[in-house]
Specification:
single chain, mainly alpha, 0% strand, flat
Length: 108
């Protein structure tokens, strides 16, 4: 899962609704896929730890080409699988948006 930083009002409302509906549909698919089978407690613990580490690493801004930050998405997908991994990355992105972290934001 990737994201881009756009200012408010750049995209027309039709595109915003389309992409939100697509994201919600993919989220429902991931939830249904993970609910159909039992999940080991160890895998859930790993997913929780990876979510915490990914969130912490996500907040570090690397001053390269205007600012970048790592998401650890491939590592999470490899360690917990695509279903749970997509949910973990969704939660990390949601929490990062709630914090209001902007790439390249200057404090001072």
């Amino acid at each position: 899962m990737a994201h881009i930083h756009l200012p408010d009002g750049v995209l027309p409302i039709q595109w915003v609704l389309f992409w939100w509906l697509l994201a919600l549909a993919l989220l429902v698919v991931a939830l249904v896929a993970t609910r159909r089978r039992t999940i080991a407690i160890q895998r859930l613990a790993i997913a929780g730890m990876l979510a915490a580490v990914s969130f912490a690493v996500f907040q570090i801004n690397i001053p390269f080409a205007g600012g970048v930050h790592m998401t650890l998405t491939p590592l999470i997908g490899i360690l917990v699988g695509p279903g749970i991994g997509s949910l973990v990355i969704f939660i990390v992105n949601l929490l990062s948006a709630a914090v209001g972290r902007r790439m390249g934001a200057r404090r001072g």
